[in-house]
Write a structure and sequence with these properties.
The protein is of the alpha+beta class. It has three domains: about 5-175 and about 275-390, FAD/NAD(P)-binding domain; about 175-270, 2-Layer Sandwich (Alpha-Beta Plaits), CATH 3.30.70.2450; about 420-500, Glutaredoxin, CATH 3.40.30. It is built from 14 helices and 25 strands. It has helices spanning about 10-25, 50-55, 65-70, 105-120, 160-165, 230-235, 240-255, 300-320, 325-330, 335-355, 360-375, 380-390, 420-425, 485-495, and strands at about 5-10, 30, 45, 75, 80, 90, 100, 125, 130-135, 140-145, 145-155, 175, 180-185, 195-200, 205-210, 215-220, 260-270, 270-275, 280, 285, 290, 430-435, 450, 465-470, 475-480. The strands form six sheets. Strands 1, 2, 8, 9, 10, 11, 19 and 20 form an eight-stranded mixed β-sheet that branches. A five-stranded antiparallel β-sheet has the order 14-15-16-13-17. A four-stranded mixed β-sheet has the order 23-22-24-25, covered by helices on one side. The longest helix is centred in the C-terminal third of the chain and has 23 residues, at about 335-355. The chain is globular. The two termini are about 15 Å apart. The structure holds flavin-adenine dinucleotide.
Length: about 500
């Protein structure tokens, strides 16, 4: 078999999926249709939870990927919701990365591709996945002009996913009603700072300074809202170049800000869809292949990268033979957990779209109201910051388990001076032992790394130990110092022989 997993699509989600599978000891190869890495900046916003995950990946020189990206991008202390003027303050969030990192998607992809090259993971450019057929113990995948065998295929091939279509996985949802523009531009007379302009009669435009002196401008004209799906498709098929952008900016804002050049111009709709299945036998979907929505609040990339994170360790566990059934197709499966998150994502972006695309006096009053609620802080701001940052995303909790199960583990200090997040490995659980006498030290195995930690404070103060999944979510939490009870819990998260399976 040429690879244990073939990933279709060398966008950010495909590249991270490959990086995490590799980190979990899986032989993986990526096939990308384009001749080389993308140069389009597309997503520019990286949220804290994404950076936390990237901090688990060790790259060249012993550095973590998150640190490489943070050094390269521009950190901002706050995020926007629906382009409202009052922003969500991230500075007080309980994370090592209480920031929004502005970094063009092309740079994120480049760093991921560099990492894979350093790890020796093949990324084959100019070789589209055409199709596949089932063979005895896997798949024969046609990519470029050759056949390759693999145990599994991950379709990270974007919104128009061929893998999704060939798997006959339906992609239902809401038809688009609006179309906006997004561009990276050079401006001779840029605004003094990031900002947004709303005009009831014309539309809105938002301007954001980008690393390297460019500006991201995006907006929607009033006439491009309230459309039928057919009208949206028609608008998207019309030419949209520098002069059309200039005209749109002048119509909305009364100025084109001295628009000189636009290295990248695109149009985006609010089409909102989710794949009915994320898995069909040996084929899985992730990222835009599994869900699309209005690009609002910078979430598509981030949620896609979290798909990759949830998928990789479970698929690796399945390949290595230690995944219990509930991780493969039960309540703890990739599909079950991530579809739940996609539902929240779609509701969130539909709500943002409703705020962004209403140009009546009532719409303005609603925006002012929600913006004011955000500006005052408190529950609304906290809840929105939790969901946009990714930090409050949690997974459904099995009945009868501790209330913390399914929630994200914070980056607690460990006794040896390290921290919880950086101790996570994609091929094993982390058992954090809070007992001063190290009561759980004997429970270590090939699949469970035990690390001692000082007794935590706050809601965690009653706990004696937590079992953390490779993706950083709690599998088990216990206030009991009895190792036997915890051994029972461990048995539910690995197959009986899991403790002795070798990664090699
Ligand atoms: C204008 C715009 C602005 C956005 N802004 C943001 C933002 O600020 N923040 C945010 O989080 N998200 C944003 N998004 C969304 C974000 O860009 C996407 O969610 C993200 O690119 C999804 O990554 P992906 O890897 O799933 O898919 P893609 O990036 O689409 O990558 C899929 C890859 O698969 C390749 N491919 C396709 N078919 C095949 C095949 N048959 N075989 C092999 N390869 C194939 C494609 O060439 C492509 O490289 C924005 C999107 C747009 C369009």
């Amino acid at each position: 078999m040429s690879a244990q997993v073939i990933v279709a699509g060398g966008g950010p989600v495909g590249l991270l999926t490959a990086a995490l599978l590799d980190a979990a000891g899986v032989r993986v190869e990526v096939f990308e249709r384009n001749e080389g890495p993308s140069e389009h900046s597309k997503a520019t916003t990286m949220h804290p939870r994404t950076l936390e995950v990237l901090a688990t990946v060790e790259t060249a020189g012993g550095r973590r990927l998150a640190d490489v990206l943070v050094d390269h991008g521009t950190p901002r202390p706050s995020a926007h919701f629906a382009v409202l003027p009052d922003r969500l303050d991230y500075s007080g969030l309980d994370t090592p990365f209480p920031i929004v990192l502005l970094i063009p998607q092309a740079d994120t992809e480049r760093f991921l591709a560099d990492h894979l090259r350093w790890r020796g993971v093949p990324v084959h450019y100019g070789q589209a996945v055409q199709g596949w057929e089932e063979v005895d113990d896997g798949l024969r995948v046609r990519a470029g002009d050759r056949d390759h065998t693999a145990g599994y295929l991950v379709g990270a091939d974007g919104a128009h996913s061929r893998v999704r279509k060939l798997s006959s996985i339906a992609f239902p949802g809401r038809e688009p009603t609006a179309v906006g523009f997004v561009a990276d531009v050079d401006l001779a007379n840029p605004p003094v700072a990031a900002g947004q302009l709303w005009h009831h009669d014309t539309g809105f435009v938002s301007t954001v300074p980008m690393p390297g002196g460019k500006w991201r401008v995006f907006g929607t004209e009033v006439g491009d809202t309230g459309l039928t799906a057919e009208e949206v498709r028609q608008r998207q098929s019309e030419p949209f170049g520098l002069e059309e952008l200039r005209a749109a900016l002048r119509r909305i804002a009364g100025t084109d800000f001295g628009l000189r050049a636009a290295p990248w111009i695109s149009r985006a709709s609010d089409s909102t869809r989710r794949a009915t299945r994320y898995r069909s036998g040996r084929v899985l979907l992730a990222g835009d292949a599994a869900h699309v929505h209005l690009p609002a609040g910078g979430q598509g990339l981030n949620v896609g990268l979290q798909d990759a994170t949830n998928l990789a360790w479970k698929l690796a566990a399945e390949i290595h033979g230690w995944a219990p059934a509930h991780l493969i197709d039960g309540a703890g499966s990739y599909e079950h957990e991530r579809q739940h998150v996609a539902e929240q994502l779609m509701a969130n972006t539909l709500a943002q779209g409703a705020l962004m695309h209403t140009f009546t006096a009532g719409g303005q009053a609603l925006r002012d109201l929600v913006s004011g609620l955000i500006g005052r802080g408190g529950d609304t701001a906290e809840e929105l910051a939790g969901s946009l940052s990714g930090l409050s995303v949690s997974y459904p909790q099995p009945e009868g388990t501790h209330p913390l199960v399914g929630t994200r583990a914070p980056d607690l200090p460990l006794a040896d001076g390290g921290t919880l997040h950086r101790a996570l490995r994609h091929d094993r659980y982390l058992l954090v032992d809070f007992t001063p006498e190290g009561r759980f030290a004997e429970l270590g195995s090939a699949r469970v790394e035990v690390r001692a930690a000082p007794s935590p404070s706050g809601t965690w103060s009653t706990l004696c130990a937590v079992l953390v999944r490779p993706d950083g979510y709690l599998a088990h939490a216990t206030p009991s110092a009895d190792p036997l009870g915890l051994a029972d819990a461990l048995a539910q998260w690995t197959t009986a022989d899991g403790a002795t399976v070798s990664v090699a």
